User: Which sequence fits this backbone?
């Protein structure tokens, strides 16, 4: 029985015998959840636009190179920049939804009383990494503001600022997890947009 309850809790199936909890946060955490929802939805729209732009740019590159026999030099750089933004901002969205790939074989073996402790230890390790990445990527982004890239003649900071932006999003989402227990379980499904 213990393993079944633990598996149910890890797969986000409610225990019918458990007392019902309020459906969501109230007060200031509610405002935080609305802010996080707005940031997530904006990020998803931007991710979709970036993906569409990469497809159009790639089709255009093929057209110019093979049909018009006049390759365009900046296409690869723009595609790379958009892809980098997709990776980092997408990682932040997945962090909020708890959909990153995780090896939980050891977590599933823990007794029920240790699951919460293990969750917060993992989250604090994540936060430590996120804060370090934020600090160093922000420093790098600022340091290269005066430089320019090849064909585009823009600063490479456009590439690098994706990391501190995504880290700031993840730090915001961490704070939301502190105040809203419903954000501590996976939401959505992989591939869902």
Assistant:
């Amino acid at each position: 029985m213990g393993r079944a309850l633990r598996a149910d809790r890890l797969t986000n199936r409610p225990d019918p015998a458990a007392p019902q909890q309020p459906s969501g946060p109230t007060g200031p955490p509610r405002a935080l959840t609305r802010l996080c929802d707005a940031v997530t939805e904006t990020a998803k729209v931007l991710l979709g636009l970036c993906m569409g732009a990469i497809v159009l740019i790639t089709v255009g590159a093929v057209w110019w190179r093979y049909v018009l026999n006049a390759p365009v030099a900046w296409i690869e750089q723009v595609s790379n920049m958009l892809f980098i933004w997709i990776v980092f901002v997408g990682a932040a969205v997945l962090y909020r939804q708890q959909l990153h790939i995780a090896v939980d074989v050891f977590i599933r073996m823990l007794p029920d009383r240790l699951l919460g402790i293990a969750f917060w230890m993992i989250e604090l390790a994540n936060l430590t990494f996120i804060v370090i990445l934020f600090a160093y990527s922000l420093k790098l982004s600022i340091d290269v503001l005066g430089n320019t890239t090849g064909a585009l003649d823009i600063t490479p900071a456009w590439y690098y600022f994706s990391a501190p932006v995504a880290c700031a999003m993840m730090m915001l989402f961490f704070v939301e997890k502190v105040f809203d227990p419903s954000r501590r379980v996976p939401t959505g499904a992989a591939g869902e947009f």
